[in-house]
Amino acid sequence: MKVAVIPARGGSKRIPRKNVATFHGRPMIGWSIAAARAAACFDRIVVSTDDDEIASIAEAEGAEVPFRRPAHLADDHAPTVPVVAQAAEALVLPPDTAVCCLYATAPFVRPEDLAEGARLLGRGASYAMAVTRFGYPIQRALRRGRDGSVEMIDPANMLVRSQDLEEAWHDAGQFYWARAATWTAGTPVFGPGAAGVALPAYRVQDIDTPEDWRRAEVLFGALEAGGWD
């Protein structure tokens, strides 16, 4: 059994109501629900929310909202793992159930990426998540002081050629697959056995601030107009 859990609380601060704000013609959460439905690998698509409006919109988009998220897991400090664990417990999922935490603000997520995550989990990964490459060698990162001065964090890499530095990846902030038992045990996401679904950088954008939102709108529009994969 495979279940998508989409966390979508109502109290977002930096972008008010961002989970249901209109993004390219539909509520933001609608893009995640549509991708989950198109992936054709989920037995259930469930939204975890504390908010009646979000619940109503999620149901209209084709998801279930069979419970309300507890208040202590709907504030600014609630981590993802306990939220998904609570959903697994509320749904009374068997320990071996494959549960995909799919963020509500992931309009770039593709059905085939979700399906690939399921395949990696099926091959024994503890977690399977979307990742992408850093656009610049992190070994050459700079530290900037209050006075505007800059210095290398690791000066030893100043003269090392870019091609000789280890490639680095980061979480794409779209989805995370794991077994229900892994979620309820509170197992850290970035631990032993985790696997990554590689995404191109042009399909990755965090949406935490108004600037992020605008950038995502521009990027999404460019992808649609250009027909990029």
UniProtKB/TrEMBL annotation:
GO molecular function, one term: N-acylneuraminate cytidylyltransferase activity
Keywords: Nucleotidyltransferase, Transferase
Gene3D superfamilies per UniProt: Spore Coat Polysaccharide Biosynthesis Protein SpsA, Chain A (3.90.550.10)
InterPro entries xrefs: CMP-NeuNAc_synthase, Cytidylyl_trans, Nucleotide-diphossugar_trans, PseF
Alphabetical list of Pfam families matching this protein: CTP_transf_3
CDD domains reported for this sequence: CMP-NeuAc_Synthase
Protein's name according to its UniProt entry: N-acylneuraminate cytidylyltransferase
